[in-house]
Amino acid sequence: MTSNHGAAGPDSHKVALIVGAGDALGGAIARRFAREGYTACVVRRSAEKLGPLVDAIASEGGRAVPFGIDARKEDQLVAMIERIEREIGSIEVVVFNIGANVRFPITETTTQKYFKVWEMACLAGFLTGRETARVMLGRGRGTILFTGATASVRGASGFAAFAGGKRGLRALAQSMARELWPKNIHVAHIVIDGAIDTEFVRTLFPERYALKEVDGILNPDHVAENYWFLHKQPRTAWTFEMDLRPYIEAW
Amino acid sequence: MTSNHGAAGPDSHKVALIVGAGDALGGAIARRFAREGYTACVVRRSAEKLGPLVDAIASEGGRAVPFGIDARKEDQLVAMIERIEREIGSIEVVVFNIGANVRFPITETTTQKYFKVWEMACLAGFLTGRETARVMLGRGRGTILFTGATASVRGASGFAAFAGGKRGLRALAQSMARELWPKNIHVAHIVIDGAIDTEFVRTLFPERYALKEVDGILNPDHVAENYWFLHKQPRTAWTFEMDLRPYIEAW
Amino acid sequence: MTSNHGAAGPDSHKVALIVGAGDALGGAIARRFAREGYTACVVRRSAEKLGPLVDAIASEGGRAVPFGIDARKEDQLVAMIERIEREIGSIEVVVFNIGANVRFPITETTTQKYFKVWEMACLAGFLTGRETARVMLGRGRGTILFTGATASVRGASGFAAFAGGKRGLRALAQSMARELWPKNIHVAHIVIDGAIDTEFVRTLFPERYALKEVDGILNPDHVAENYWFLHKQPRTAWTFEMDLRPYIEAW
Amino acid sequence: MTSNHGAAGPDSHKVALIVGAGDALGGAIARRFAREGYTACVVRRSAEKLGPLVDAIASEGGRAVPFGIDARKEDQLVAMIERIEREIGSIEVVVFNIGANVRFPITETTTQKYFKVWEMACLAGFLTGRETARVMLGRGRGTILFTGATASVRGASGFAAFAGGKRGLRALAQSMARELWPKNIHVAHIVIDGAIDTEFVRTLFPERYALKEVDGILNPDHVAENYWFLHKQPRTAWTFEMDLRPYIEAW
């Protein structure tokens, strides 16, 4: 860990916690906050896989701390937050960015799959939101950002599981916003509508990926800029929800 | 259908399956379908507690069969549906009517509570919808009705768990409707917005209950009429969603 | 008019006013209410063109009175309602059913066209709703039904004018419902999503019309049944909005 | 850009056109764009009343040009845009910011009032959007921003006219976005939900205004920052809609 960072300036004690830093978007958000002096606490199942992201942030002069936990597990999440607050700094902003996009006809959606999607997309978001709300309420400030998807606002055929999880997450965000905004905690929900520039899309959807040449897929850095913007909004004018999609996306 | 149809095989019986028949609304829906000659298969955790409902239906000349299962348990639900189809008749309409209305500040919402609300409001609905869809797809017809609530469309402060479950259920209904309507299975979602005339409301919210004198709380029989109406809609003009509330309700 | 209908029963003084009775749906709604004993006051620009509808209702034993007015003109609408109330009976239910579906790229949408669509879809609805609300408020009862469309909830490319008018109408319906429900006037909005079985569709969209053979376009009589159902809902459980589309419609 | 660019041809000037610059928000948006070097073309009925705004922008080193036109009049709007493009510069961003917030019971909403609200909130927005879209389509770029309100998404009791106009405007924005985004023109809609810090609120709603001390009313400069942010979004990640309200606002 970082207790030997004795010379750290004041900003080094502000933490941006990114739960779900395993994809391109989570990584870009972590880099964006790190560039502003936040210590990026980045979370995914396997801490080892976070090496490249931590290195990238360090190479830009920032600081990142990797955490390998399963965010669906209350005890792991609680312990991590406790440790961050004790050893690293105050969590000023948290981004919940775990997705679980699957598509199955309803009769082929196993109970195990339905449950797992909900655990990842929704339960982990609840645990992340609730536990960070606790520490933020103690300080009377903070920002909680949830990454949504098209499925957050629409239940398309074959998406009973994914839309169920994402709608549950959006309900969580709305309910928390209405409760926590008056306590100076900014809760917001970003609806990501479109393919993001990732290895996954490049490999599995090459035709879609080819749209990158005409700016037709979401650039993670551009998306991340919106998370930073939301975090910086003064409280006289806070946003609960905004959507993001490439200009050529049909919607 | 008459109660003396004792020797009739499964084919001669049309079944209305009411999952969540423990409240006034579930009971009223069961009676409504029974009056049209459907065998009402009524489900709640405790079969014994269904006695009064079964008797009431019988006293009106209808037929009801009680099932005491936990609809969150896949094996129990699958076994029940298999038995209904084999021994009682074809499930022509299913109503998922389990609620789980709780209210807590976010930091007082335990993981256990959050999970249980989702299990009842959403997972049980998924299991019910998927398993009845299977048998209906085999016949190429059927109606699947989900009971929603205000929380299905709004995440108010303190309702992270309930709104999460209800939104997930609505997403399920939408996704199933888009997939199954073209296969002649009518899936719909009814948004119940307001207090229903129940013992619960009468006891705990006497001021609210007093509105009954001016028709100010939902009459279960009136609500049930809408379920019957949706089931009878010809397929050239199906409804996915309708809301129901007393005339004096603020919304 | 009808003062010589000396033998009329009590129902003969109840009026169903259908503003926009020039299409298949308006006609079907008029017939539906006439079958229940309501005098159908049917309205379109040209009274002569209402002859076949009036005759059809008469041949079914009902009663219809044609009115040729421009519902965008306040004076004509006010005079008509005054005359109906004085000479025919009490307007118990009014259906606003004027559409104005056009599609143009934004830069080809003339101001004249944009204005006319709004006048037909929205202003006429406002005048109809306001003037019938006046007489209904005097009696402390009534039903006001607005016909919506897909564009009522979605602004698709090319539909700036039509969606603008239809959204305005839906806002009117919502605002009136919130104000008038507590005064015992039931205001509702029906979202018609799909092609209706009309001469227009038969001639201009023959491929779409061919879907009729598989119940794939909206049957006006089936749609009309929903208007009747809404009118009959007891006030303990009123619906504000329901959608209607054929089972095979994509949405 | 500097104020001494007197001899510069139109191409060297980027114009931000603010239609509805008579309130605090319109003024703040104009100042925000002027600070970035845009010539702020500011529009309200009376050009004289724009003097203080033009002076304020000049005192900050910016440039503003006042236009006194009635934006409901096609000929005036067309002539103004033609003149701006010919004499001042290219309209890179337009903000439609005319409101018309009134509240009346439905039966007290005169036709004149209903019409006027629609003309201001919706027709003027249509004309502004269509005419600026024309010149932007010629250049293949531009940003069109519409100011919405709570009434854009909700039709409360007494707001039939205002909600009708605002919903129509939102439908316009959605339809234009779906048509024009693929042509590289960014159309967005900002939902302003809450009182803005204005003379109007200070005078008429002193209790509301007192919330300013706890950041409880919308700061026009903070709101304006979001307009600038939307204009700068790269096209790989555009937003159609975002909401803005003070942290203590109930919603």
- Most extensive contact: A-B, 43 and 43 residues
What structural category characterises the helix and strand content of chain A? alpha/beta
Order of the strands making up the biggest sheet of chain A: 3-2-1-4-5-6-7
In round numbers, the mean pLDDT of chain A is 93
Number of helices of chain A: 8
User: Which regions of chain A are unreliable across 5 or more consecutive residues at pLDDT < 50?
Assistant: 1-11
Oligomeric assembly: homotetramer
Let me know the number of strands of chain A.
7
Series of secondary-structure elements of chain A, N-terminal to C-terminal: EHEHEHEHEHEHHHE
The biggest beta sheet of chain A reads:
7 strands, parallel
Q: What is the approximate shape of chain A?
A: globular
Could you explain how this protein is built, in words?
- With 251 residues, chain A is α/β, with parallel strands linked by helices.
- The first copy, chain A, has eight helices and seven strands.
- The first copy, chain A, has helices spanning 24-35, 51-59, 74-88, 111-139, 160-180, 199-204, 206-209, 220-232, and strands at residues 14-19, 39-44, 63-68, 90-96, 142-149, 185-192, 241-244.
- In chain A, strands 3-2-1-4-5-6-7 form a seven-stranded parallel sheet, sandwiched between helices.
- In chain A, helix 5 (160-180) links the parallel strand 5 (142-149) and strand 6.
- Chain A is globular and about 45 Å long.
- In chain A, 57% of the residues are buried.
- Mean pLDDT of chain A is 93; it is low at 1-11.
- At the A-B interface, helix 4 and helix 5 of A face helix 4 and helix 5 of B.
